[in-house]
Amino acid sequence: RGLSREPGARWAEPGCRSCTCQGGRVLCDAVSCSIPCSHPLPAPAGGCCPTCAGCLHEGVARAEGDVFSPSDGNCTVCVCLAGNVSCLSPECPPGSCPSPSPSDCCSCHPAKCSFRGRTYAHGARFSLDGDGCTTCVCQGGEVECSFAPCPTLDCPQHQRHLRPGQCCSSCRDPPAPTGCFLDDNGVEFPVGQLWSPGDPCELCICQADGSVSCRRTECLETCPYPIRIPGQCCPDCSAGCAYMGRVFSNNETFPSELDPCLSCICLVR
């Protein structure tokens, strides 16, 4: 910067940087600040490091030795010493005060509660007769009790019961189903019953939980002229042949209805 510096010389540069001349070179680093106090004041104009010559507390600058009260009050007194803020609060004696004056720094300690031969501190919670169904609380020398709220039950009244040691009723487990109801007519099948609901290819069973499980039968055996038996799911290819509305047994011969010169035979393969 147009100036000559001696070897080992140290000086300050703008922007809070400290420079030194070493071996013909200029080495610069940011100024390192050591702050030995808890509430230092911001660096003064032209300075880099905060100062402990006063205190900055809640955004307000305090002079060395200044005595003040914090914004929340409550009779707490603070003092600024070498950049540190020390605060002291008054010690209030235990006990109750019915109506403390506004100038009194000590807050009112609510009275204890005497209830059924026992004494409870303010704010204490306890159960009535130890049953846990009634909760009581001591508030300013008075005891207030309330019943424990019970949940809303979604079962009918005849399925509710109160277990020993419980405050609220609960629902009984529903009885195990004895069968399956199928329609509004009250038709019921016992557990394990198999039946066809009108389609011979569909088979249903009544399960233990009262539900109905159904499954369709897939017919795998096929032939050109199967015999269809009423009430039976799959056509029968082993009993004979069905041809032009008539049923013929195995190896039976018969004239063709399309050509009287032709003779047909039923072959089960």
TrEMBL record:
- GO process terms (BP): cellular response to virus
Flavoprotein among the record's keywords? no
Task: Fetch the Pfam families from UniProt.
Answer: VWC, VWC2L_2nd
Kindly list the GO CC terms recorded for this protein: cytoplasm; extracellular region
The cross-references to SMART domains, in alphabetical order and at most eight, read: VWC, VWC_out
Location in or out of the cell: Secreted
What are the protein's UniProt keywords? Glycoprotein, Secreted, Signal
* UniProt main location, coarse: secreted
Name of protein: VWCE protein
This protein's species is Neopipo cinnamomea
